[in-house]
TrEMBL record:
Gene3D superfamilies: Vaccinia Virus protein VP39 (3.40.50.150)
GO molecular function: protein-L-histidine N-tele-methyltransferase activity
Organism: Lamprotornis superbus
Biased composition (Basic and acidic residues): 98-110
Protein's cellular compartments: Cytoplasm; Nucleus
Keyword list, A-Z: Cytoplasm, Methyltransferase, Nucleus, S-adenosyl-L-methionine, Transferase
Protein name: protein-histidine N-methyltransferase
C-alpha cells in the first residue's frame, strides 16, 4: 500500500506537486468543480459516450460521466497510488449500489432515512465493467490505451482538469489528446489562467496547441 511513497514525499516537501514523482492527484483541485458546474449548465450529454478522465486524481469528472450513463469511462493518473487508493474506491463509493448503501448509512445504526431518494445505482461489477483504470506518464499511457482498446477505440469525450500547469509536459499531453480523441470528439479542459511558480496556463497551452496544429483543433473559451 502507498508503494510510491507519495503521501510522505508530498508531506515532507510541503508540496502538492513533485514533478516526475507526484503530480497532484491526491487532492481535488478547484477547476474540477468548475468543470462539473459547466457540465450541468451546458447540459453536456454523456449517454453512450466513450469518455477518458485524463489526469483524473479522485476521478470526479469520470464519475459524473458514469452517472450520466456513459458507455465506457477510462481513468488515468500519473500515480498508481492515486488510482488504487483514491480513484477506484471513489468510483465504487459513488456509482455502485454497494457504495451508495454505505454512504447513506444503511449499514450503520443510523436512524434517519436519507432525505433524497438515491439515484438508481448499479452493482459494482456492472459499473466496473464500464470502467478501466490506468496509471503512468502520458506518452506511455496513450500507447497502452491505443493497444488495449481493441478494436482501436478513440474517445468521444476527454475530460481533463488542472493538467496544463507544467509547460514541460505540453508535448506529451498534446500528443495524447491528438492520438486518443475521436475525429468528432471533444476535449473539455479546465485550468487556471496561470500557474504561479510552475509557469503553465491557458494562454501558453492555447499557443502551444495552435503552433502544433495550425488550425486542425478548434478551441472555445
Ligand atoms: C493537479 S492534478 C489534477 C487532478 C484532478 N484532475 C483534479 O482536478 O483534481 C494533475 C493530474 O494530472 C496528471 N498528470 C500531470 N502530469 C502528468 C504526466 N506528465 N503524465 C501523466 N499524468 C500527468 C496527474 O495524474 C495528476 O493527477
Amino acid at each position: 500500500m502507498f508503494g510510491e511513497g507519495i503521501v510522505s514525499k508530498s508531506v515532507s516537501s510541503h508540496s502538492d506537486l513533485i514533478p516526475g514523482v507526484y503530480e497532484g492527484g491526491l487532492k481535488i483541485w478547484e477547476c474540477t468543480f468548475d468543470l462539473m458546474d459547466y457540465f450541468s449548465e451546458a447540459e453536456i450529454e454523456f449517454t453512450n459516450k466513450t469518455v477518458l478522465d485524463l489526469g483524473c486524481g479522485a476521478g470526479l469528472l469520470g464519475i459524473a460521466a458514469l452517472q450520466g450513463k456513459a458507455a465506457r469511462v477510462h481513468f488515468q493518473d500519473y500515480n498508481s497510488t492515486v488510482i488504487d487508493e483514491i480513484t477506484l474506491p471513489n468510483v465504487v463509493a459513488n456509482c455502485t449500489s454497494e457504495g451508495r448503501r454505505m454512504g447513506s448509512g444503511k449499514d450503520r445504526k443510523a436512524s434517519k432515512p436519507p432525505s433524497k431518494r438515491p439515484r438508481k445505482a448499479e452493482g459494482s461489477s456492472d459499473v466496473l465493467n464500464r470502467c478501466r483504470f490506468f496509471s503512468g506518464e502520458w506518452s506511455q499511457v496513450s500507447q497502452l490505451l491505443l493497444n488495449s482498446n481493441k478494436p482501436c477505440l478513440k474517445y468521444d469525450i476527454i475530460l481533463t482538469s488542472e493538467t496544463i500547469y507544467n509547460p514541460d509536459y505540453y508535448s506529451a499531453l498534446h500528443d495524447t489528446l491528438a492520438q486518443l480523441l475521436d475525429r468528432n470528439g471533444r476535449v473539455y479542459l479546465a485550468s487556471k489562467v496561470h500557474y504561479f511558480g510552475v509557469g503553465g496556463g491557458v494562454y501558453l497551452f492555447e499557443k502551444f496547441i495552435e503552433e502544433r496544429n495550425r488550425g486542425s483543433f478548434s478551441s472555445e473559451a
